[in-house]
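for the record, two folds in this file. i put them one after another cuz i was lazy. first one right below, seq on top, structure tokens after. the second one comes after a little note so u can tell where it starts
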Amino acid sequence: MKPRAGRALTSIMIVLTLTTGMIEAVSFLALGPVFTAMQTGNLLLLAFALTGAAGLSPAAAGVSCAGFVVGAVLGSLLESSADSHGRRWFPRALLGEGVLLGLAALIAWRTGVDGPGGTVTGHHFAVIALLAAAMGARNITTLRVRVPDVPTTLSTRALTAFLGGLPHVADPRIGSGARHEGRRFASIAAMFAGGVLGAWLLREGVSPAAVLAVPCALVLFMGATFWMVPERRTSEPG
């Protein structure tokens, strides 16, 4: 059973995009520098680190890549299994992702992972792996949901489509109009806002664990809410 398309689903995906910005703020500023959701950037950081670029950790980037792969594979298996039995896989995916984010926040709290400028340790690698696994599962969910213009873990395509849909520039093959452009702008704005919020909280001395607790709470809340709403109102065959 796939989630029913509409404003509610689009809103969920926009909120997920905001959480990506917060998660990447913690990943880059407090754990690495490393990315856990945007693996294009992470692969480049790994490439740079392997050449000996100063300030980069090939171990951190490698752990993130590995965690992402594991999360994507497990997420695909979980969602496909639920779907094959005619069950709603979307709330399960959100709850599973929320659990991984919660574990990352818990480890960061219990082990005292510091804010920007701290020394990278094994505890950092554990948090990186869990965040990357959560984001790997998130990307599988995003591909299955297929909400146009809201990829949740990157903004390049949304920004390109937004520019390509502007008046006097619009390419009919991209799609234009208020609905398309509104989703694209919301996606870009949510990513930016999440990054600003996460970075600001870290700068104000809020612990990485507390910052990660916000995305965790949001994802778990959305998953639980979706689960409790009657199936006929939230899902459809396919």
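(here's the note) second protein begins now
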Amino acid sequence: MNEFFFKTIREGSINEVRSMLDKNPVLVNSKDARGSTPLILATYYDEMEIAKLLLEKGAKIDAVDASGNTALMGVCFKGFTDIAKLLIEKKAELNGRNAMGATCLIYA
């Protein structure tokens, strides 16, 4: 089920993501095979509405993937400023470091 959930996020199917979260709320902070959370994945794919939904459903904003990257680090790297603004407004950690010692500012 988890892999289908993450595939649904990558495809941007917000209604399906919402339905799956309603049926199984623990998915909100689950991890895929690479250690990414739904929020990290949604932000990495520039899925703003899904990111908002995940935050509303209790996604941990500063959760890290297997490399220690947060959602904010990912969007800074990709240049997705609108999602970066959302995460900052929601109080994402600005000074955290990943496994290589990089910060959001370094990626920005």
